[in-house]
Amino acid sequence: MTIALLLVLAYLIGSVPTAVWVSKFIYGIDIREHGSGNAGATNAFRILGTKAGVWVMTGDMMKGFLAVKLAFFSPFLVLSEPFVNLQIFLGLAAVLGHIFPIWAEFRGGKGIATLFGMILSIHPIVALSLVLVFMLMLVLTRYVSLSSITASIAFPLLILFIFNAHAQELSYRLFAISVAFLVVLTHHKNIGRLINGNESKVPLFRKKRHHSDV
After folding, report:
1. Same domain for 103 and 11
2. Nearest-CA neighbor of 160 among 186, 185, 136, 126?
3. pLDDT of the residue at 205
4. 48-99 pLDDT tens trace
């Protein structure tokens, strides 16, 4: 299978609008018209509740995870530098699809869960470490945005100083650093709200809201 075709497939996988479909087909609303307006897990948690949020987050993660696995259909030797480079580009194609989904008028989410699924597929140990960082921050603060930012900053630190023996590829290390910058950049509005004290918290373990409450 050609590299170009693999990248297109990765984008199409990423374009599956999990939050939009869950909100429309199960709850009868378009989540992009509520809350932050993003079609992602964070807004699903806020608007639809924990159960729906978990389903959306899992679906978005799987998009990044499966897109990276397309690298096994390439002619590159597994774990070689070209193979790892392709994994990164396939994952990024899925993230791009999540942010600009062709199946949902190119109006998606921020891509954090899809990005995590990508990391999980490439480097599971690092991904699980990031889950611990994310969950600890979420339980302590109930801010999904702050949890995402903290985990993204932890990503390059883990790669450069703890798991560096398992991530020698320069492209992967540069990718980890870029992720931290991009997540902080895409969350600049959230950072402003955190500083001002008006960022929305996620009420953990809350049941879904009824349509009339949205």
Report:
1. yes
2. 126
3. 56
4. 988 898 999 999 999 999 999 999 999 999 888 899 899 999 999 999 999 9
Report the alpha-carbon distance of residue 117 to residue 171 in Å, rounded.
18
Predicted TM-score (pTM) above 0.90: no
**212 located within any domain:** no
Residue 71 lies in a domain: yes
Same domain, 99 and 139: no
Residue pair 38/32 in contact by the 8 Å Cβ criterion: yes
Cα–Cα distance, 69 to 78 (Å, whole number)? 11
Residues 99 and 133 in one domain: no
Tell me how far the alpha carbon of residue 128 is from its chain's centroid: 14
Rounded distance between C-alpha atoms, residue 119 and residue 129, angstroms: 11
- Tell me which residue of 50, 63, 73, 59 sits closest to 19, measured CA to CA: 59
Question: For 151-183, what is each residue's pLDDT tens digit?
Answer: 999 999 998 888 865 555 788 888 899 989 988
* Domain that residue 30 falls in: 1-110
Report the candidate in 48, 181, 164, 195 with the shortest Cα–Cα distance to residue 115: 181
In angstroms, the CA 183 to CA 189 distance is 11
**Number of domains making up the chain:** 2
Measuring CA to CA, which residue among 55, 62, 40 is closest to residue 145? 40
